[in-house]
Amino acid sequence: MIRNSEADEMRAKILSLIPEYFQRAFDKGTFIPGKTPIPASGKVFDSDDVAGLIEASLDFWLTAGRFAEAFEEKFAERVGTSHCCLVNSGSSANLLALAALTSRTLGGRALVPGDEVITPAVGFPTTVNPIYQLGLTPVYVDVEPRTYNVSLGSLKKAISPKTKAIFMAHTLGNPFDCGGAASFAREHGLWLVEDCCDALGSEFQNRGTGTFGDLAAFSFYPAHHITTGEGGAVVTDSHELAALIQSFRDWGRHCRCAPGQDNRCGMRFSQQFGELPKGYDHKYVYSEIGYNLKMTDMQAAVGLSQLKKLDAFIEKRRENFQYLSERLQDFQDTILLPAATPGSNPSWFGFPLAIKPECGIVREDLLRFLEQRKVGTRLLFGGNLTRQPAYIGRKHRIAEELRNTDFVMNHVFWVGIYPGLTREMLDYTVSCISEFLAEQRRL
């Protein structure tokens, strides 16, 4: 892009108007209990985020560019990994993380159709979908009550000679036993992929999630800890895996030139690949069967701005979680409260609650009651995924009785704790739950 002083002055003028525009356009007004919605999740943004988006749009560089490069560097630094590859969604991040492990360059460790991947039966479909999409076989394991994560004992039950990888999410931001899972994977020569889409900023034994596995995936969807709208990232400490992730993201290209670059390697017309003529243009050599899943620079600009607020967002999530925990202590005769995995410090995505079966309360009755009062609720994603229509009849293996998984499917839901919720909103959420339970006791 050609810049000149006149254009720079106009750019500065446009950006100077954004704080005033933000104040007028995004005024949230006063919270009115029962009328103002209390979402289970949502984005929190300010005028700096809008300014980043506008500045990138004024460049009119519509694919990945300078903002994406800066965001990759800053995000890897924040997570604590050597490499970060931005993608267009957390779902794509999960797909790329697993797809990279199918590369023939990995030799005997490459995943091939029929290989088994251990995964929880409770979760969001995008953890399981890549397993099916790549011709692999999911091996479903149960979760623990209250943490809703897989135990090391379940991993031991699931392994077989066909097992090649473990692919697990940190449920609602609550880390699974990262140290135990990583040690188990190393002991048995398995890949470990962390789905951190709900867990940015969570810690296990004072170390961030996303740093225990060979690869980790993150999401920047508006519901998550920071947002770029749509967007995600794959991180790793392996240079080899980072190169594979970039290749699979960028059409399967062998060349690592960024958009707008033509000869980063300095050997564009002098190499031999496969059965192609010697000197075939390196920009059109494909070593993997890939996709096009890049993030745009406008999204990355928002991500850069959001990243500056991440620590405050995490602190607020933890504060809101602790407040709800304290306020709901008196209801433990009917509700099972969540628990952090021992040794962890979660950056909670939501506040999960379980209706105790023996109390006779029907979960859907409570959900309808809350939703009618504008309190947003969500189930723990797909519940027992083996019972979802998409997966019935597809090849899989169930390693143990999915008793707790079925409990989640029938009795668990969650409410919001994201940074946009005020103390007044949390108090109203508790009062609605209290009102419903009091009514049930009178029946």
Q: Compute the separation of the termini in Å.
A: 70 Å
The succession of helices and strands, N to C, reads HHHHEHEHEHEHEEEEEHHHEEEHEEHEH
Q: Poorly predicted ranges (pLDDT <50, ≥5 residues)?
A: none
- Looking at the overall shape, the CATH architecture is 3-Layer(aba) Sandwich
Q: Mean pLDDT, as a whole number?
A: 96
Q: Largest sheet at a glance? A: 8 strands, mixed
Q: Which fold does the CATH topology refer to?
A: Aspartate Aminotransferase, domain 2
Characterise the protein shown here:
By secondary structure, the chain is of the alpha/beta class. It has one domain: Aspartate Aminotransferase, domain 2 (3-Layer(aba) Sandwich). An 8-stranded mixed sheet has the order 1-9-8-5-4-2-3-14, with helices on both faces. Strands 10-12-15-13 form a 4-stranded antiparallel sheet. α6 links the parallel β2 and β3. α4 packs parallel to α10 and α5 runs parallel beside α6. The protein is flat. The N and C termini lie far apart (70 Å).
